[in-house]
Task: inverse folding
């Protein structure tokens, strides 16, 4: 049986330990902020170019443009296609030279093939190449692995990871600060739709690949509650042609040739459906022009524009001293801010467009 003295010493020891713990606990409780401040919003910028260079004498100005963009330290740069002119040769030597030009950029660069780069290569002035063979060569040259171009290359996801779409290495996806970016191979000249009889094999296969890739991107965006999606491609899909009220073509239309086939119609309809089911901001960026444009292209059957979908069209040859700069700030409405930039100068007031309206992330 313990002696009374030992019990007394034990109780005193416990009391001392408790006396030390209670103030410490009180200090820990009072040191925690009652109303913690939210984290500061993160932001980044990226740059868009396209249709440059289109002639040998534009390579020097294109180099100057890339240097000016590099000096701004964008998170990445996207070239929307047409890195050569329509009548320039599609030979390997020219493609390799333009590849080296883009690859010299310090920032990561994502290149999307344009119609001048492959689907127009059958033209006599371009060398009478097989367009599909040239597209395969572009894939070998520009997309040998899962890294972008640029000296600070970043890793991106390619549709070619899917067995069914193994060849579509140019269709890519990545995420920056929660915003989802997706590229599609959609070339100019009516999406390479051929009017000759028979199956439009290249067009139809690529149409299905693009449809699946875009649907998957929006599925990921909804699942992750991404605040925004940015879609980039080369062609202007001609939103102004009244497609919203157009019925599906029938056999008689084809026989009488009374309505030309819209190679972008399926894409426009899919965009309208996907954006209706998504609560974030959507920014569609394309090239196929030398002039800047910013508008709200998607309209319902009654002509009302979708307020959270914006379209931006970048500059191109012969405008070689300007590019698009897109700023993205998380937690801000609008999420995207698009403006034109000019080498060594700020844009004039009229060149600063209305920013994209977004719905805050849930």
Result:
């Amino acid at each position: 049986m313990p002696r009374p003295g030992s019990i007394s010493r034990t109780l005193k020891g416990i009391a001392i330990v408790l006396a030390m713990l209670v103030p410490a606990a009180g200090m820990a409780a009072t040191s925690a902020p009652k109303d913690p401040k939210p984290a500061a919003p993160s932001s980044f910028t990226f740059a868009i170019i396209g249709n440059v260079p289109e002639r040998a004498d534009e390579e020097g100005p294109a180099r100057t443009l890339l240097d000016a963009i590099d000096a701004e330290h964008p998170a990445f740069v996207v070239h929307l296609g047409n890195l050569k002119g329509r009548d320039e040769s599609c030979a390997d030597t020219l493609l390799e030279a333009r590849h080296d030009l883009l690859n010299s950029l310090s920032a990561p660069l994502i290149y999307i093939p344009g119609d001048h780069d492959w689907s127009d290569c059958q033209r006599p002035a371009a060398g009478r190449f097989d367009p599909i063979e040239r597209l395969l060569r572009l894939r070998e040259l520009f997309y040998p692995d899962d890294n972008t171009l640029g000296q600070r290359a970043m890793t991106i996801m390619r549709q070619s990871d899917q067995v069914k779409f193994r060849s579509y290495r140019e269709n890519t996806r990545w995420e920056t600060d929660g915003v989802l970016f997706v590229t599609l191979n959609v070339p100019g000249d009516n999406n390479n739709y051929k009017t000759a009889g028979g199956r439009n094999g290249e067009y139809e296969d690529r149409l299905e690949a693009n449809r699946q890739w875009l649907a998957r991107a929006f599925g990921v965006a909804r699942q992750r509650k991404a605040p925004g999606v940015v879609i980039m491609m080369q062609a202007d899909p001609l939103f102004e042609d009244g497609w919203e009220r157009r019925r599906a073509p029938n056999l008689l239309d084809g026989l009488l040739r009374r309505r030309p086939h819209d190679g972008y119609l399926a894409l426009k309809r899919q965009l309208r459906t996907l954006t209706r089911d998504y609560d974030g901001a959507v920014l569609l960026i394309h090239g196929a022009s030398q002039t800047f444009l910013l508008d709200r292209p998607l309209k319902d059957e009654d002509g009302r524009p979708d307020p959270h979908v914006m379209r931006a069209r970048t500059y191109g040859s012969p405008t070689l001293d300007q590019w698009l700069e897109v700023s993205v700030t998380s937690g801000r409405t609008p999420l995207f801010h698009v403006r034109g930039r000019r080498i060594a100068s700020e844009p004039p007031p009229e060149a600063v467009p209305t920013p994209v309206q977004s719905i805050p992330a849930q």
About this structure: Residues 6-36, 348-362 have pLDDT under 50 and may be disordered. The CA atoms of residues 49 and 79 lie 5 Å apart.
